[in-house]
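ok, trying the design again with the full structure, not the truncated one.
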């Protein structure tokens, strides 16, 4: 049959995943989305702005009671040695 040679080498490594809190990390952004009509607040680094949007939106649309919170948070990985 001939000589068998390996075609690939597998190496198992341990990786870590966590929110990126480094000084140069992208900021966390918040937004809210109305589950009734799909309208979305402006995105902001300050959660108070999307909250204010929800209160204005439900004031203008009294039957809109359900909202989704949208958070964009930077994450980072690294290989443990």
């Amino acid at each position: 049959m001939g000589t068998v040679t390996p075609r690939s080498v597998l190496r198992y490594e341990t990786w870590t995943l966590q929110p990126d809190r480094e000084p140069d990390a992208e900021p966390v952004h918040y937004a809210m989305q109305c589950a009734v009509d799909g309208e979305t607040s402006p995105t902001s680094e300050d959660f108070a702005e999307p909250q204010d949007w929800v209160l204005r939106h439900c004031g203008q649309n009294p039957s809109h009671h359900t909202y989704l919170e949208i958070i964009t948070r930077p994450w980072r990985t690294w290989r443990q040695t």
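Keeping the full-length input from now on. The chain has a mean pLDDT of 94.
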